[in-house]
């Protein structure tokens, strides 16, 4: 009789089972030592603060596709003077690398005006945001490595142009957890019917436990699908089903400790059960006054969609959600290789009032003090024209801005050159941007570590630093 037919002998099917059952269990001792780091890291608990935080939560407004900085926040009179001419020879090396050496320069068609007490320059595309500049720090010297959308969006989310690393929101979830156990720590929403480049990879937990990945809320209808218990089931029956399912899952998880996805699934079931009480109120915009909804532009079909998401963001932030990311123009709609006037005019109109409404609403409720709002895309646009009336990708210099969360408003920091091609003063790489966001939340980018494959991994890949000028 072959050994696999003996009923009293369990034949190991994997090396893990072999170690656990061999040598009177001493193999399991060795195995547990090898897995100790992974087991500790899989626990769902915050890593903890490293210093006194200025912000408790982040709302990241991501303009997917790359808005033009020299048409929004970074006016370039020299670009207008040299319009139609080729790029000066002094820019040749950069332009050649970007494949735009012979394209003529294209002037901005915008009208510019200084706003606020600090006289921050904003174009006529953003009249509502212009009323908030005394709360905003404009960062004109950002740069990145990704030259295409996939790499650029990936790096702005994960600090690397290559996929596989945890997103910034996942690091925040891992570092701080949530202030509200009945809601996720990290929430993602997209405006419009298209999907953002890279999809869920942008809010993935990478090599960290899957429980730290972002939770995607729907933009139309029920934000959290299938959350409500059907009347035919009832709360008691639903609770019993979840208890049984949890018991089965925990037994399986104990036998397969390497599968963090199952831990995340168990946690998500438990969270979903708690959310049945908390989430409906959090996403119920009918509780807001007509005045508040109008502040976000929800009374206008051109601004209603993004206005709804911005208002949802405020409601989530005030309920303890740590990291909220909104994608405007998913599917690279800000990517204006041609017809930038029509493209950006439409997108700015749809985004401007909701964003300004968010800032004003946070401020009047006393929430802006500890809510950090970040605005920007994966890169900017070139001063050279493309197809006669558009602009190409520009990773070497572009604008983002931050407000609230301890940031000193009314500032314009950093600079690009006279044509807006390259960041030249107080240059801020994506690593620096992430390091600064984490610092404002009370997390040090070097002290926040996750053990992976025998070495400590850090959110900014051991690069970047806090930009101290943000706080004055």
UniProtKB/TrEMBL annotation:
Gene3D superfamilies reported for this sequence: Alkaline Phosphatase, subunit A
Lineage: superkingdom: Bacteria
InterPro entries found in the cross-reference section: Alkaline_phosphatase_core_sf (IPR017850), DUF1501 (IPR010869), TAT_signal (IPR006311)
A Pfam family: DUF1501
UniProt cross-references to SUPFAM superfamilies, sorted A to Z: Alkaline phosphatase-like (SSF53649)
Name of the molecule in the record: DUF1501 domain-containing protein
Organism: Alienimonas chondri
Organism placement in taxonomy: Bacteria, Pseudomonadati, Planctomycetota, Planctomycetia, Planctomycetales
């Amino acid at each position: 009789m072959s050994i696999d037919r003996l009923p009293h002998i369990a034949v190991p099917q994997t090396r893990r089972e072999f170690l656990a059952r061999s040598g009177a269990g001493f193999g399991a001792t060795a195995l547990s030592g090898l897995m100790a780091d992974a087991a500790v890291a899989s626990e769902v608990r915050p890593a903890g603060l490293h210093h006194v935080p200025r912000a408790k939560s982040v709302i990241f407004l991501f303009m997917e596709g790359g808005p033009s900085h020299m048409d929004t926040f970074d006016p370039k009179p020299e670009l207008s003077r040299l319009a139609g001419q080729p790029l000066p020879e002094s820019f040749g090396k950069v332009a050649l690398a970007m494949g735009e050496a012979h394209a003529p320069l294209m002037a901005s068609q915008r009208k510019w005006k200084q706003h606020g007490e600090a006289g921050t320059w904003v174009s006529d595309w953003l009249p509502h945001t212009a009323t908030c500049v005394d709360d905003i720090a404009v960062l004109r010297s950002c740069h990145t490595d990704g030259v295409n959308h996939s790499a650029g969006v990936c790096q702005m989310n994960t600090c690397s142009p290559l996929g596989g690393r945890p997103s910034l929101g996942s690091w925040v979830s891992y570092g701080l957890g949530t202030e509200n156990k009945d809601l996720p720590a990290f929430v993602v929403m997209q405006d419009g019917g298209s999907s953002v480049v890279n999809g869920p990879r942008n809010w993935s937990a990478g090599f960290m436990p899957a429980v730290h990945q972002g939770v995607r809320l729907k933009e139309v209808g029920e934000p959290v699908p299938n959350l409500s218990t059907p009347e035919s089931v009832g709360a008691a029956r639903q609770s019993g089903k979840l208890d049984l399912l949890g018991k089965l899952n925990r037994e399986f998880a104990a036998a397969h400790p390497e599968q963090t996805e199952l831990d995340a699934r168990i946690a998500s079931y438990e969270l979903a059960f708690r959310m049945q009480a908390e989430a409906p109120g959090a996403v119920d915009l009918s509780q807001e006054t007509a005045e508040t909804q109008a502040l976000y532009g929800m009374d206008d079909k051109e601004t209603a969609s993004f206005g709804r998401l911005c208002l949802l963001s405020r409601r989530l932030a005030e309920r303890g959600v740590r990291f909220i990311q909104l994608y405007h123009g998913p599917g690279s709609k800000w990517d204006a290789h041609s017809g930038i006037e029509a493209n950006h005019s439409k997108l700015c109109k749809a985004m401007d009032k909701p964003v300004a409404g968010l800032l004003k609403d946070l401020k009047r409720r006393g929430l802006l003090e500890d809510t950090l709002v970040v605005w920007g895309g994966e890169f900017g646009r070139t001063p050279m024209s493309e197809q006669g009336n558009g602009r190409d990708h520009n990773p070497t210099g572009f604008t983002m801005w931050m407000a609230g969360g301890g940031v000193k408003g009314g500032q314009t920091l950093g600079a690009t050159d006279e044509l807006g091609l390259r960041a030249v003063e107080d240059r801020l790489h994506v690593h620096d941007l992430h390091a600064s966001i984490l610092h404002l939340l009370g997390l040090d980018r070097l002290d926040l570590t996750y053990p992976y494959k025998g070495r400590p991994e850090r959110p900014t890949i051991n690069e970047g630093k806090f930009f101290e000028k943000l706080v004055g």
